[in-house]
Every structure is written in structure tokens, then in C-alpha cells.
Amino acid sequence: MSMTLLTAAEVADQLRVSTMTIYRLIRRGELPAVRVGRNYRVRERDLEVYLAAQTVDPATVDLDALEEGRSS
User: Fold this and answer.
1) Which pLDDT belongs to residue 34?
2) Domains of the chain: which residue ranges?
3) Cβ within 8 Å of residue 27, ≥6 positions away
4) How far apart are CA 40 and CA 8, in angstroms?
5) Are 40 and 23 contacting, i.e. CB atoms less than 8 angstroms apart?
6) Radius of gyration of the CA atoms of the chain, in A
7) Class at the top of the CATH hierarchy for domain 5-71
8) Cα dihedral 36, 41, 45, 49 sign
9) Per-residue pLDDT reduced to its tens digit, 7-64
10) Cα dihedral value 14, 17, 18, 23, nearest 10
11) How many CA atoms lie within 13 A of 49 on its CB side?
């Protein structure tokens, strides 16, 4: 059984978010993780599945609303 386990910091680096964001995703159950001692590890495959589920269909996104929100 070969699987790659990533630390929360490694996942955060890949996604360019804070480590705290990753811990929040894990705590909410949005990003599956394995507890190893006092630390969490994310299976690389679980990260891929999470990212695939976050993919946005451009046809369903109101880009004008996003731009308006950014300028406020």
C-alpha cells in the first residue's frame, strides 16, 4: 500500500492559503485527513478529490457580481 501523506503546511503551500485555512477545512469535514499522533496528514488522493469537487463551471459563475464585490 503506497500513499503519499501531506502535512497541513504542505497542503497550504500547494493551495497558496494559510495553514489555518487547511485546519478549518479538516475540522469542518470538507477535506479528509488522517490523525497521526497530534498531527494531521492529508492523503494526496483526498486533496485531488477535494480540488476536483471545488471546480467551478464558468457558465454558472456571475463574473460581474464577483467584480462588483471586489471593488467594494
Assistant:
1) 96
2) 5-71
3) none
4) 7
5) yes
6) 15
7) mainly alpha
8) positive
9) 999 999 999 999 999 999 999 999 999 999 999 999 999 999 999 999 888 788 777 7
10) -80
11) 9
At residue 22, the pLDDT reads 98
CA dist., res. 43 & res. 31, Å (int): 10
Q: Which three cell numbers stand for residue 40?
A: 494531521
Cell of residue 25, nine digits: 477545512
Return d(Cα 45, Cα 13) in angstroms, integer: 16
Is 71 a residue whose pLDDT tops 60?
A: no
Q: Residue 22's CB: how many other CB atoms inside 10 A?
A: 25
State the pTM of this model.
Answer: 0.78
- CA distances from residue 20 to 17, 51, 67 in whole angstroms, order as listed: 8, 18, 26
- Distance set, CA 23 to CA 13, 50, 60 (Å): 13, 14, 29
How many other CB atoms are found less than 10 A from the CB of residue 46?
A: 18
